[in-house]
UniProtKB/TrEMBL annotation:
Keyword match Magnesium: no
Origin: domain of life: Eukaryota
Location of the Alpha-L-rhamnosidase C-terminal domain: 591-655
GO biological process: carbohydrate metabolic process
Signal peptide region: 1-23
Protein's recorded name: Alpha-L-rhamnosidase six-hairpin glycosidase domain-containing protein
Keywords in alphabetical order: Signal
GO MF term (any one): catalytic activity
Matching SUPFAM superfamilies: Six-hairpin glycosidases
Species, as recorded: Talaromyces atroroseus
């Protein structure tokens, strides 16, 4: 096979990444409910990976063998000549949907064949693996050209390919001579994801900084989320087919639903929502897919209150942690939408879910895990510390939900008390004072200190305050040059769990560590020449190869790894919530906080949208050093909202502060908190006197 340097492929180039989106329709007969335009137009739109149209074509030809491709428009320029000849087309980004190929066949009796891959590692005549039943990929689609002349082939709907970047088209000629010819005159892909949006670039949030790598990472997370929102009738078929793949299973209701990955598993996984829901809110601002995903979990809830680990048709059960993630997902959804009707309709099921999980708390005050399935880690069960952190978050958010639903039976107070009791028990029984981090279990002989539990202990506020810095430091012991290796999943780097870790470092006021890990892990993948260059990967190995270990204890076929997995999009929400510092603290932003952490950046701006309006902020400072020099902070929030601004002090003596031209006293504290009692535009200048 001859490797050809990628060049612009003129005849097939209809995908132009500009900031002006084309008008178009939504997926098939889906009703368009998405926004028409971006909420925050600007130069940052150049970083959006989403195409300008739902109809796209390849951008490049990557490889060819036994073919002539001279990149001129019209017939006779993309010729497959001879049995086994092939052309590898590169769409330039992760895409997914239904492909149509137009061709001209001088003779009948040849086969047009299509194979797909997300990564360059598996381009060729065999697709990468999405089915999961095979160790050597999914095979290919084949179309028998029985009549000579011009024709067209469109993939069957059941064969929708959810995620790929590379399309290999090759010719087989079982009944003809070796001089068989097939002319590929056009290729068109009908994008299948985010089916309710006609304008895939109409983002309702944005991020921009002086660090171009971080900008690219932010938008790769945003685009990943888009590819994970699919028509509910395009799930992976279970049981899996004997050969190839079928994506025609029913996942739930409505016109769109969130799944874990573009290529696979294409099912609702509540654990993934722990990261994917905040990312969706920050970027798209459209949470319909999340609502439909959560609703199917409630509608398939067991009679004893247990939620399944995944939605139908996969419908795996037996996970205490994913049971709780459905509950946390409920909180996040209502926080971002104020959809109290959804909460009221499912409140009985939520209470049953809380009773189910809390019944497993023993006399020690710790959860006894019996549902052992989890995100892929080993050694789940007993008084596992990760599960304790998730239960704490479940109780804390449940207490808020009880208030929002108007409960008058004292549930909020009861669940808050349970959370505080659990916090005491976890710190007493699971913390390893000698090491300075949480053990994997309350068992004293446990010597492993997991990434998941320790990251969540910081993010969810479980760790005693005097232990926070030690835990943050100990987490860095797991780092290698390309990310954080999870001790609970040896040899593996999980961007899912690392998404919690970066937020944990931010909560520990260590933006230096959080940014370092983002650049190591997500920077490694976005710059990887073998990846999609546009999305975030499910997981990979510490030896810098693609692979990921399943929770059944076997190594996946490396091509089975998803290269567009929403559970890995943590930097997308973290860069807004912590580096820019803008977050909602009350439903749909009725209350908010702005608490920037500068790290080594000099300028950042961003925003998001709720039903109350636009939230936008920016800051800039003179220096990129770790010391805090003078800076300016501007923000705009909707009328009727209230919030707090938490300002870091500048180094070098007395700090002066003006807000909209008015001088304010700073005091002697390291930070200054300002209460803002109404919406509007504000400008703050902080300088060293």
């Amino acid at each position: 096979m001859v490797l050809v340097k990628p060049v612009i492929f003129v005849p097939l180039l209809t995908l132009v990444l500009s900031v002006v989106a084309e008008a178009g329709s939504c997926w098939k007969n889906t009703t368009c409910t998405g926004p028409e335009n971006a909420a925050f137009p600007g130069v940052w739109e150049k970083n959006i990976y989403a195409p300008t149209s739902r109809q796209v074509s390849p951008q490049y030809i990557l490889e060819s063998t036994g073919a002539r491709t001279d990149y001129k428009q019209g017939a006779g320029h993309n010729l497959l000549t001879g049995n086994g000849s092939q052309i590898v087309f590169d769409f330039g980004i992760e895409v997914g949907g239904i492909v149509t190929v137009n061709y001209a066949a001088p003779t009948a009796g040849v086969n047009l064949n299509l194979a797909f891959s997300e990564a360059t590692n598996w381009i060729g005549e065999n697709s990468d693996s999405s089915n999961g039943a095979f160790k050597d990929g999914d095979g290919y689609l084949s179309y028998d050209i029985s009549t000579a002349g011009e024709g067209s082939y469109t993939m069957p709907g059941a064969k929708l390919r959810g995620g790929f970047r590379y399309l290999t088209i090759f010719l087989t000629a079982p009944n003809t001579t070796s001089d068989a010819i097939l002319d590929i005159t056009d290729i068109n892909l009908d994008i299948g994801f985010l089916p309710t949006w006609s304008n895939l670039r109409a983002y309702q949030g944005y991020f921009h900084s002086n660090d171009e790598l971080l900008n690219r990472i932010w938008y790769s997370g945003a685009y990943t989320i888009q590819t994970n929102m699919v028509p509910p009738d395009t799930g992976r078929q279970i049981p899996v087919v004997d050969y190839g793949w079928d994506n025609n299973a029913t996942l739930g209701y409505g016109d769109t639903i969130i799944v874990d990955g573009a290529k696979r598993d294409r099912a609702v996984w509540p654990g993934d929502m722990g990261i994917a829901v905040p990312s969706t809110f920050i970027t798209l601002g459209d949470l319909e897919s999340l609502k439909n995903g959560l609703q199917i979990m409630y509608d398939t809830q067991a009679s004893d209150g247990a939620f399944a680990e995944s939605g139908p048709p996969l419908s795996q059960t037996g996970s205490d942690t994913y049971h709780m993630w459905s509950m946390i997902g409920t909180y996040n959804y209502v926080l971002y939408t104020n959809d109290t009707d959804f909460l009221q309709e499912n409140w009985e099921g939520y209470q049953k879910a809380m009773d189910y999980i809390y019944a497993k708390v023993g006399t020690s005050g710790l959860l006894g895990v019996t549902g052992l399935r989890d995100w892929g880690r080993f050694w789940q069960g007993g008084n596992n510390s990760e599960a304790q952190m998730i239960l704490y978050r479940t109780l804390e958010t449940g207490a808020e939900l009880a208030e929002w639903v108007g409960d008058t039976t004292g549930l909020s107070s009861s669940w808050t008390t349970r959370a505080q009791n659990l916090k005491v028990a976890v710190n007493a029984d699971c913390y390893d004072d000698a090491y300075g981090a949480f053990r994997d279990n309350a068992t004293a002989t446990t010597t492993m200190h997991p990434q998941d539990a320790n990251s969540m202990s910081l993010l969810f506020g479980v760790a005693d305050q005097d232990r926070v810095q030690s835990i943050s430091q100990r987490l860095t012991d797991n780092w290698v040059s390309i990310g954080a290796v999870a001790p609970e999943l040896p040899e593996n780097i999980s961007p899912f769990i690392s998404s919690f870790e970066i937020q944990g470092h931010f909560e520990a006021a260590r933006p230096d560590r959080a940014l370092d890990l983002i650049r190591r892990s997500w920077g490694w993948y976005i710059n990887n020449p073998n990846g999609t260059g546009s999305t975030v990967i499910e997981g990979y190995l510490q030896n810098a190869t693609f692979g990921y270990r399943g929770n059944d204890g076997y190594y996946y076929d490396a091509s089975y790894v998803s290269h567009s997995h929403g559970w890995s999009s943590g930097p997308t929400s973290a860069l807004i919530n912590y580096i820019l510092g803008l977050s909602v603290t009350g439903r749909v932003g009725s209350t908010w906080q702005l608490a920037p952490q500068f790290g080594d950046l000099t300028s950042v701006e961003g925003g998001f949208t709720t039903s109350l309006g636009h939230f936008q902020a920016s800051w800039n400072r003179a220096s990129s050093s770790s010391s805090t020099s003078s800076y300016e902070l501007s923000f705009k929030v909707p009328d009727g909202t209230t919030g707090t601004v938490v300002l870091p002090a500048v180094d070098g003596g007395k700090t002066t502060l003006t807000m909209n031209g008015k001088v304010l006293e700073w005091g002697s504290d390291e930070t200054k908190t300002i209460s803002v009692t109404d919406g509007g535009s504000y400008q703050i200048i902080v300088r060293s006197a």
